[in-house]
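Quick start: load a record and inspect it. Here is DASH complex subunit DAD1:
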Amino acid sequence: MNDSENTTSKNSGVTGNTNTFQYDASLSSGDRHFIEQRNIILQDVNGTMDSILNGLNELNISLENNIAVGKEFEVVTKLWKNFYNGTDSVTDGSDSEKEDKDVNMD
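Running the structure step on this input writes:
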């Protein structure tokens, strides 16, 4: 046991590392039960927090990948935009000529 694993709580009468605790004789059985249940709940909370942290890390990686893919399509988007802008200007001029011809044929 090293010093970082050793914990002593003078208020609770519990000494030991985080995995095994030795109880002072001054603790009642109710206090021991409370401390045991508290440790179980703390372990559960710790595991849940680790799970949440791992999930957030995975989400962050996924979002970064999606942003990277989106940035790769910026060039393609600009090309299509230029294409559509070019076809709009061409079709605008030819549509007006077609309308004039349609009107003259009637």
